[in-house]
Each structure stands twice: as structure tokens, then as C-alpha cells.
Amino acid sequence: MVATPIGNLEDMTLRAVRILSEVDLIAAEDTRGSIKLLNHFQIHTPMTSYHEYNKTAKAKSLTEALLGGKNIACVTDAGTPGISDPGEELVKMALDHGIKVVPVPGACAAVNALICSGQGTRRFCFEAFLPPEKKEREAVLEELVKETRTIVLYEAPHRLKKTLDLLLERLGDRDMTICRELTKKHEEIRKTTLAKAAAYYQKQEPRGEYVLVIAGQDRRELIRKKQETIRDSISLADHMKQYTDTGMDRKEAMKAVAKDRGLLKRDVYRMLLEEEAQT
């Protein structure tokens, strides 16, 4: 699994050049694009197409070739194979047949965008492109609303405006970083917010490939809102009863209620005494 540059050819590793020169065959997502890369590095290895529309059938024939003793390298049009690009099916099939799979690391737009974004990098989720089918897209957006990790998305220029508007509507205004044309001549990294980005691209025509790095929901704020909802929706006495009805003793129930409502246990005890005194 050989990563190739996402723009700047200087990002091609020495190991990648050697591997592509030594293997018996290169399975390429776009042979017309990959031939330019191979010519640049004077690599003359034969290629075969392996793309989204033949990935299952071709994975079978490639696996047969591997079982026959061939060494094969998998490359995509740009970046790391298997990451929002063909490769996953081939790897699964190879491993199922006991074939050794070797990663040859290199460029990955998602990781490069993340490390330059100024957003949190300790925890992140990668969603690639939002699904084109409405029902599936809505399901993903529903998950992202409550996502506390940094969110990394890909988007094409002709869909960028619509996607930014949709994200703003569903996620609310968030800190974000827009990365455009990474490693290329017109590379741009813009730290902004969803609202500002949506407004900017209503006036500016998107050009190039985009990676969106969006701040996750604040975990403490999520907890606070949940506690606030509980306090507003159920009385303290009824909340206690929910726990005691399960067989929990009063002391443990007060502890659980205090946690649910974001209160101290002693405050729950005091408030219960006050409610009992009023009745």
C-alpha cells in the first residue's frame, strides 16, 4: 500500500520510488494520472487499473496474482490508498488469504490538514466526504452534532458552499480551519469559523480541493446542557423515586441524582428536606 504525493512531487519518498520500481505490477486508481508520476521518477513497472467501479472483481484477480507469487503495489490518484480511496477491499481479501500487506507511508491530506489547523489534534474523527444520499447524510450529521473530537471532512469545490451552509445549520457556529490545495502552488490554510467561512464562500468562488477541520463539541458544555435538561424536565422528588423504585437505597439514589443534575450530594439532601417541609 504505497502513498503518493497529493500535489508536490518532492513528497514522494525514496522508499516509495524503490518499491514501485521493484514490484511486478502496480494497481493504480487512475493509470493516466499515475503514468505521469512514474515517468517523473523513471519507473517502468507495468500498471493495471484498480478503481471504485471494479474494486471487488479486480481485488479477486489481484489476490490470485499475489497467491501466484507476484508482488503488487497499490496506489491511488494521490495520497494514501484506502483512505477515502480504493484499497480497503484488496487489503481485506489479501489478509483473508494469508498474504502479507505492507504499508509504505507518505502524504495524507486529512493528517496534513489536521496538524496545520490549530484545532485539537489529540482526538479526531475522519468522515471523508459527507454521503450523497440524504438519509445517510442526515444520520452522519446527527452523529457529528454531538461529536466531541475534532472533525475532519473532505469536500470538492462545486459542493463546498452547500456543505458549509449545511454544517452551520446543523452544528451551529464552530471554530474551524479550511485547508485548500494542500502541498500545491496555491496552498491556503485559513483558521476561521463556520459562519465566517460560509459567508466568505458566498462571495468567493471555491477553487481546488478542500479539507475542513472543525472543532468538536465542548464535552463540558454537553454535560451541562444534559444536566440542565434533567433539572427542567423532572422534579427532584420524582428523580429520586426513579432510582429508589429500582431498589437503590436513599443514600445511593441521592448520589446518582446529584451527578445527573450537576449538584453536590449535600445540596440534594438539603433541597429534599426543604421540599418535604413544604409538603
Give the secondary structure arrangement, pairings included:
Layout (H helix, E strand, L loop, with lengths): L13 H9 L2 E4 L2 H10 L6 E3 L5 H13 L4 E4 L12 H9 L12 H7 L8 E5 L5 H12 L4 E6 L4 H12 L3 E6 L7 E6 H10 L6 E5 L4 H15 L2 H9 L5 H12 L3 H14 L1
Parallel strand pairs: 1-2, 1-3, 4-5
Antiparallel strand pairs: 5-8, 6-7, 6-8
What does this structure look like?
By secondary structure, this protein is α/β, with parallel strands linked by helices. It has three domains: 9-96, Tetrapyrrole methylase, N-terminal domain (Cobalt-precorrin-4 Transmethylase, domain 1, 3-Layer(aba) Sandwich), CATH 3.40.1010.10; 109-217, Methyltransferase, Cobalt-precorrin-4 Transmethylase, Domain 2 (2-Layer Sandwich); 220-278, no CATH class. Helix content is 47%, strand content 14%. The protein is built from twelve helices and eight strands. The strands form two sheets. Strands 4-5-8-6-7 form a five-stranded mixed β-sheet, with helices on both faces. Strand 4, helix 6 (134-145) and strand 5 form a beta-alpha-beta unit. Helix 7 (160-171) runs antiparallel to helix 8. The radius of gyration is 26 Å and the shape is elongated. The termini are far apart. 25% of the residues are buried.
| Order of strands across the main sheet | 4-5-8-6-7
How much is the average pLDDT? 93
CATH architecture of the largest domain: 2-Layer Sandwich
Helix fraction by DSSP (H/I, runs of at least 4): 40-55%
Indicate the low-confidence ranges by residue numbers. Answer: none
| Radius of gyration from the alpha-carbon trace, in angstroms | 26 Å
CATH topology of the largest domain: Methyltransferase, Cobalt-precorrin-4 Transmethylase, Domain 2
* Number of self-contained structural domains: 3
CATH superfamily of the largest domain: Tetrapyrrole methylase, C-terminal domain
User: What is the number of helices?
Assistant: 12
Helix-strand makeup class: alpha/beta
Beginning-to-end CA distance, first to last residue: 72 Å
- What is the highest CATH level, the class of the largest domain? Alpha Beta
The backbone outline, from C-alpha atoms, is: elongated
Q: Helix-strand pattern, N to C? A: HEHEHEHHEHEHEEHEHHHH
How would you characterize the largest beta sheet? 5 strands, mixed
Give the strand content.
5-15%
| Count of DSSP strands | 8
